[in-house]
Amino acid sequence: MNTRHVHAAQGLGLAAFVGSLEYLARSGTVGRITLVPPSEMGTTLVNLLVSGEITGDIWQTFSVVLGAFSLAVLVGIPAGWALWQSAELKEILDPFIITYYAIPVFVFYPLLLVVFGFNRLPILLIAFVMSVVAVVINTANGFEAVDQVYLDVGRAVRLSRYQRFRHIALPAALPYVFTGLKLGFIYSLIGVIASEFILAGSGLGYLVSNYYTTFNTAKMYAVMLFVVIVSVAINQTLLRIEGRLYQHRVNA
Predict the structure, then answer these.
(1) Which of 51, 70, 124, 216 is 20 to 30 Å from the Cα of 115, by its Cα?
(2) Residue 142 lies in a domain
(3) What does the pLDDT look like over 93-143, one tens digit per residue?
(4) What is the Cα–Cα distance from 52 to 36, expressed in whole angstroms?
(5) Helix, strand, or coil here: 104?
């Protein structure tokens, strides 16, 4: 199936899903307190954006998301490379990485509140911890997947260590690295939204929680729709960057 057919099938599937929700909401099959029509979600979102009602909360949420994600990238990619370079380091850290997946990060939130106070820093740290491991693991897996033959050829033609990294290892690992970046962004967003939902006094997660408890279903779904749209847009941006880098590598 070519790309055009795939996109057409995806569009039809999305249209059918949205149409079904619209019918269920407008026909009364599902009560308004549970679901509002997608068309109303869209118009409510536009009104919220135009009025500026949620502008401050958007900034609160995405400034923390971008901060946590940036830290995850700055720490995760070098850490993944270090794990690839040192088998001893990988052997030492492997048990901790495995244990990480068995521990819900939010259990540390009370400790972070005691240490850093009731502000945005604990939320940033939780989002960072949730996202950095995905970046580290995928980066390490990407470098480990590099064909050893290419590295040996690089040594044979007297490429420096940096040149082997720049021209052989990094381009080969890019698909894995970008998978880590996409997962890292998603986990950063989940960490921030979930933290705001439970414990913050501002941000998009707080708005969803507040609108839910006050039965303002239309605004609740509008904020959720905004988060989905931004998430998809950023994910597509990363996919395009990945595609261009891959094309550049092929042309080179």
Answers:
(1) 70
(2) yes
(3) 877 777 777 777 777 777 877 788 777 888 899 999 999 989 999 998 888
(4) 22
(5) coil
212 and 95 part of one domain = yes
Q: How far apart are CA 28 and CA 228, in angstroms?
A: 25
The separation between CA 184 and the C-alpha centre of its own chain, rounded to angstroms, equals 5
Query: Which amino acid is residue 221, in one-letter code?
Result: Y
In a domain, 21, yes or no: yes
Q: Which domain holds residue 19?
A: 1-35
Using DSSP's 3-state secondary structure scheme, residue 157 falls into coil
Residues 198 and 150 occupy one common structural domain: yes
**The dihedral sign for the CA sequence 186, 62, 239, 2:** positive
- Amino acid 248: pLDDT: 59
> By three-state DSSP, how is residue 207 classified?
helix
Looking at the structure, tell me whether residues 4 and 72 fall in a common domain: no
Q: Are residue 73 and residue 178 in the same domain, yes or no?
A: yes
With a cut of 90, say whether residue 47 has pLDDT above it: yes
